[in-house]
Every structure is written in structure tokens, then in C-alpha cells.
Write a structure and sequence with these properties.
The chain has seven helices and no strands. It is an all-alpha fold.
């Protein structure tokens, strides 16, 4: 009987040891599977990196266009600074440069604007440009405010259109790879710890 108890005790020990070994094997397999899943997820997330960047830029351009559409031209620089306080940019200089290049395009390519207007724009602050143009050229057939605003809105609409095209190309590439973009986007967010919408 003692031999039987001894035998059963050994068998229980063996059973516990076998169960413990199995548990270790299961944990190792789970770690390996998680590691493989993480590696696969990282690879999937890479497919969405450019698309995510285009989405972010598109969002920024749309927000900037909103500032253009809802503010007076003389207030643009201040409105941009207020709307994007974390940006360390000289909006007055940037916006003036956009106006100069847009008007230059109108002079040289479209032949719709005059060189005299352009020269005045170059030497005038953005906040004063519409007033000075209107005062200096009262015979102008049209609205300087509308012309200046059109340069800004056209620029931002072009940038938005370009970003939408780039984003569409990235999404199409994901479809071509045989994947759903929404799935790849979700994996991208998981890998990068993005919790917002």
C-alpha cells in the first residue's frame, strides 16, 4: 500500500510538473504569437504612414482655409496666430509672400493684374494692402478685396485638392494590397497609441 501511495504521489508530482511545463509552453507560445502579431501589426501600420501624414496635412489646410474664409484680409495674420498658437511661424510674412507670388502669377502668366499693383503690394504690409490698392487705383474695374481673397482661397483649395489626391492614391494602394483601409488605419492607430477619432 505504501508503494501504491508512493507511486500515486510520484504520479501527482509528475502530473503537476507536466501541467507546469504545459503552462510554460502555452505562455511562451502566447508571447511568440503576440510578438508575431506585433511585428505583423507594425508592418501593416507602415502601409498607412503616408496616408496618416496626408490626413494630418489635409486637416491643417482645411483649418487654415476656414481662417481665410471667416476673417477680414487685414486680420489674417492675427487670426492665424490665434487659431494656431503652437505654431512658431511669421504669418504676416508668409501670407504677404503668398499674395506677392499669386499676384505675380496674375501679372506674368494670366495677364489679369498690373505690374503697378504688384509693386505697391510688394512694399505694403498685408494688413494695409487692400486699402492702399483701392486708394492708389480708384479706376480699378473690380474689387481689390475680392482679388486678394481669391488668391488666398485658390491657393488653399489647390493644396487641399493635392492632399486629397495623394490620400486617395495611398488608399488605393492599400486596396490593391488586398486590405481594407479602415482596418489598416485601425492597426496604425493601435501601433501608435492614437486614441482620438
Amino acid at each position: 500500500m505504501d508503494e501504491l501511495k508512493s507511486f500515486l504521489g510520484t504520479e501527482n508530482d509528475l502530473f503537476e510538473k507536466t501541467a507546469e511545463d504545459q503552462k510554460k509552453k502555452d505562455e511562451a507560445a502566447a508571447k511568440k504569437k503576440a510578438s508575431n502579431n506585433n511585428a505583423k501589426n507594425i508592418e501593416l501600420a507602415k502601409l498607412y504612414e503616408d496616408a496618416a501624414e496626408y490626413e494630418e496635412e489635409l486637416e491643417a489646410f482645411e483649418a487654415e482655409l476656414e481662417v481665410i474664409n471667416t476673417n477680414k484680409i487685414e486680420d489674417f495674420a492675427g487670426a492665424f496666430s490665434q487659431a494656431f498658437p503652437d505654431e512658431e511661424r511669421d504669418y504676416s510674412k508668409e501670407l504677404h509672400g503668398i499674395l506677392v507670388s499669386g499676384w505675380t502669377y496674375g501679372v506674368e502668366v494670366q495677364k489679369t493684374h498690373s505690374t503697378e499693383h504688384l509693386e505697391l503690394i510688394k512694399e505694403t504690409k498685408l494688413s494695409d494692402v487692400v486699402e492702399k490698392l483701392t486708394t492708389a487705383f480708384p479706376e480699378y474695374d473690380g474689387s481689390f478685396e475680392a482679388s486678394v481673397r481669391e488668391i488666398f482661397t485658390n491657393r488653399w483649395k489647390t493644396l487641399i485638392s493635392i492632399k486629397k489626391d495623394h490620400l486617395k492614391e495611398e488608399i488605393d494602394d492599400i486596396y490593391i494590397a488586398g486590405l481594407k483601409p479602415s482596418f489598416v488605419k485601425r492597426i496604425y492607430k493601435q501601433v501608435h497609441g492614437i486614441t482620438k477619432k
